[in-house]
Amino acid sequence: MACSSEHKPESTEAIAMPDDIPFTEVKSTNQSDSEVVSPPRLAGVWRSEQPEPAGNGRYSVRELTFTGSRWDLVYTLAADKQMKNVLFTHKASGTMTIQNPSQRISGAYLVVYGFNQKTLNIMTTDKTTLKELGFDSCAISSRKEVDVSSKGCGIIPRVSECPKDYDLLLQETRKSGQYISIGNKFAEFSACSEDRRPVALGVSLIKIK
């Protein structure tokens, strides 16, 4: 389900940062093998359970690290499900704010990721792919991590153009471990304004550290 720019934004209110939030409750869900953690306790490293479909036969894997109010993302896009033919790796970091509980999705919270830095490492030299992703006009050498915070590149906007990313997040305890589900952004790479915040949950990440 793609994000809609026409839906009415949920009301927002910042609450305490992740490591300052008292553990107040664990809510049971309809699934007998899972419980919703509310509010979220995110400290640690979370990674895609498996390669995520990204369209056009491509797959992605993301890794999110939370340390206090800081967040770090490593996003890798590949041309195959085995993630052997990597097209690019994008890294981002900044400060995260957990807002109020979602009014649409029980147990989920509204979150905002503020960007301080963005980098890009283009791994493909295929001209068609580079043009499709908008990387052909960036004058960036392949297989070299480059800071794109100030200028952006292709599908990755500069920080001044997209200083924040608006998202949803639901944390669950399952028999197989700790998981977070994040907003469905299948049709968009970034949700740079409140009215583009996802209205449904998408992929799940499992805690690995």
Task: Draw up the topology in text.
Elements: E1 25-28, E2 34-38, E3 44-48, E4 52-55, E5 58-67, E6 70-78, E7 86-101, E8 109-122, H1 127-133, E9 146-147, E10 164-174, E11 177-183, E12 201-207
Antiparallel strand pairs: 1-2, 2-10, 3-5, 3-12, 4-5, 5-6, 6-7, 7-8, 8-9, 8-10, 10-11, 11-12
Short summary:
The chain is mainly β and 209 residues long. Helices cover 3% and strands 45% of the residues. The two termini are 30 Å apart.
How many helices does DSSP assign? 1
Radius of gyration: 17 Å
Category from helices, strands and their pairing? mainly beta
Shape summary: globular
Average pLDDT for all residues: 88
What string gives the helices and strands in order?
EEEEEEEEHEEEE
Q: Characterize the largest beta sheet: strand count, sense, and whether it forms a barrel.
A: 8 strands, antiparallel, barrel
Give me the side-by-side strand order of the main sheet. 3-5-6-7-8-10-11-12
- Specify the helix fraction band: under 10%
Instruction: Please indicate the percent range of residues in DSSP E strands (runs of 2 or more).
Output: 35-45%
- Could you name the ranges where pLDDT drops below 50 across 5 or more consecutive residues? 1-6, 16-31
Number of domains: 1
Distance between the termini: 30 Å
User: Based on DSSP secondary structure assignment, what is the total number of beta strands?
Assistant: 12
